## 1
Amino acid sequence: MCPKDNHLQIPDLSSPFRVGRLSLRNRVVLAPMSGVTDLPFRQLAWRFGAGLVVTEMVASRELVGNASESWARLKSSGIDPHMVQLAGREAHWMAEAAKIAAGNGADIIDINMGCPAKKVTGGYSGSALMRDPDHALSLIEATVRAVDVPVTLKMRLGWDENSINAPLIARRAQEAGVQMITIHGRTRMQFYNGKADWDAIRAVRDVISVPLVANGDVTSTADAAEILTRSGADAVMIGRSSQGRPWHAGVLAGAAAHPQQAEIADIVAEHYGMMLEFYGIDIGLRHARKHIGWYLDRFAPHLASQERAAIMTSTDAHVVLSRAVAAIVAETGREDEKDAA
């Protein structure tokens, strides 16, 4: 057990830390986000210096059933260590999926007990597992027993404000063999509303000695320093703040500089090409649309609404890319004119 100490030294985000026998290169983790952190996005985030990247949530029973989408989500393409997040509601399928993942190169297995989406919790997976800690522990124990690689856990503070049970589950998970725990500082019923409660995460720090990762509303280096101070965590996880900037985790870790506006157009073009290659033209164009939208929101804020709509609705991949890049380059020109004035 780790005693509470408000004077704990705040870890340097650029320093390595360990998960079991594995050494991670820094303390900024890219969160698993379905529909966002696919292989192309993770490859870019890793190249820019994220300390650890996690696959999109892989449904355990579907993976065992050989579903093609689950296998696509499992791919690593040389990212080391390769961390796979599994979701499910039955111990048997979680254990079998963990064996498959480990047998196909997973260096870390993460258990999803944090997803608030209704289609996940409606199936009694994700954060719904926090409503029944005994059942949740049966999944954790089965997964730990099934593999030799480190097993980690990601969860929320609890199901709602009347059932804040993350400390209880975290302590029992550590006793079961879990080697790192990530806490998003909201309950499931909050979804992403309000402000993450960074202070509440410290209650988990007080009862575990394995690495603790704090998650929720971390958008800047100042946020990262504050969440570490208030939670006592060893590392931070970023999610939505990386949308439209896959380099963000590496920047927070001090492993990369924020790209200049002119460089961003090149990154957008590369990312788009990677998605089309990974998914194929038709599916890739649809999957890439949300990423193009995030890039435009961040880096072409003055784009006329009609032009934005034309880019977002086009079914011609060349048109989408050329017009999106042109919009970002045009924004660079605006910045240059401002600087010269």
## 2
Amino acid sequence: MRYRLFGRTGLRVAEMFLGAMALQEPDEAQRVVKAYADAGGNVIDTASAYAESESVLGEVLTDRDRFVLATKYTLTRDPHDPNAGGSHRKNLVASLERSLRRLRTDYVDILWVHTWDPHTPVAETLRALDDLVRAGKVRYLGVSDTPAWVVSRADVLAEWRGWTPFAGVQVPYSLLNRDIERDVLPMAEQLGLTVAAWGVLEHGALTGSSRVGSPSPEQQRVAAAVRAVADELGVTPAQVAIAWSRARSAVVHPLIGFRTADRVAETVAALDVTLPPQAVAELEAAAPFEPGAFADFVNRSAASAGVFGHGEVVGRQLRE
């Protein structure tokens, strides 16, 4: 497994992240973590809301410093307490302290804001997070399932005020769900943010898993295209789906969960699968995606002679 930098930091993170939500039993969790580490993986992702997962990881991670351990906060700890959820300072501190106890550690490498809280000013969240970084309880920050404009505003606030910025975003992304290509993915590329992509296999819909139940006509069509490409290349459908997500952008890191260790090696092997352009075209023909009328208008305007005259823009240079 190869490594990339986490956003605009010096932290080295594996090309594939291990999602720990499904790790509920210590012995199997230990086998999964070992298989992932043996393959070169070093990022394990959980959340305050995944109570059993955090507790199990705390039990099995005996070589704590070997891993980049990530958790999240925001989701409610108690539905009867109005302050037990949200991205405000009170919930942040209480959630992190509980996560640290479960994980049996005094710090986490990455703390993600689990989802957008429109009721808490982003400045409050950023300042509270920065305080925890300065206190040594958190090393780096990320934000999950949040609009691009909120992340961009947070990035500017952090830069202006000398606070710790977000280094990554965590969002759903798959052949069946390409919405981040409208704004989140371009934003991440421009700001130098890592994208942790969850749902890359669309919960088994792209691999024909029986866990999906009754797949929709669209799911069946796209899954058939994935199988066809897999047969052409002599790989598995899961490897094709993962390889496609990485082919779209160099900042994407698939976030994959395992219930058992026997699937780890095969899944990690997807990192060595390179899809030919024709295969990418076949997959995207089965799962068409339109950025939308406004995105089309903006892109046309950016290349319009009405903006630049008769000059041709080459990279960041203007050529007459």
## 3
Amino acid sequence: MKAVVIREFGVRPSLETVPDPEPSPDGVVVKVEATGVCRSDWHGWIGHDTSIALPHVPGHELAGTVVAVGRDVRRWRDGDRVTVPFVAGCGHCGECASGNQHVCPDQYQPGFAGWGSFAEFVALRYADANLVRLPDDMASETAASLGCRFVTSFRAVVDKGRVSAGEWVAVHGCGGVGLSAIMIASAAGARVIAVDITAEKLKLARKLGAEFTVDAATGSAVKAIREISSGGAHLLLDALGSTDTFQNSVKCLRTRGRHVQVGLLLGEHRNPPAPMARVIALELELHGSHGMQAFRYDAAFNMIASGRLRPERMIGKRLTLEQSIDVLAGMENSTATGIPVVTSL
């Protein structure tokens, strides 16, 4: 099969022909019909993820059709159209039994712990516990755009953030995660403030539901958010993942407000100092949010089917597999809007 292969961290990947995958006893092989190109893939290419062994095929935001099934799989068969959370639980441990597969201690992440979806085919483990059946009327590129970004944001806003209609919600960073969070919070009836340093991204944020935008490059985002919301937001999401955006998010909250850290804090930003005096005095809540369980996809699908959410509006460039290499390598400095999706070889 054709696949994008990383042979050295930080060095341009290559499009190669590699052996087709075989299903594990508890897994399946999926023919990839679409796959998103995500900043998490960039982190993996740089070498920030210690679970990656070289050579490696990246990619974790996928949609496709099952073409081979392991001997122990009971719920899936050839021809099923599926996607999968970027965190797959083992299905047997205490966390999985309690419905928290996304924080399984023996989790499997396609595109990180194993070869991913920048390829014609991808092998997925723990199929019975993690695969998600796609609605018949959902296009593969739309399903791939849900990827880790949209569903991660759905859990961050709805499950962890407990968003309510009429609340002020501010989102730092208008990449794929941030724009998804903006759309979801707006659909829930919240008043949304989008923060970024790129005019085009802020323009798209307004189209997707932001009532106000703040250009953090031209002044204090903290001051602007507190003024717009008359004292601070009820819910803040750091969708970028940096020391500054994390600290600014906490400083923007009103009393008993909720911060959700959804952007990855990696490299030099791995352990940012927290303004804990403010957290204690205002009884603020600090939450981490990491993916979403397979069984929660139905809630997102129902909102999409009702027309309240339109994730296809966030799709940016449609790419070939070879074009994904340039997008991946240039992601750190990219100002492109929307989610790039590989839709053809």
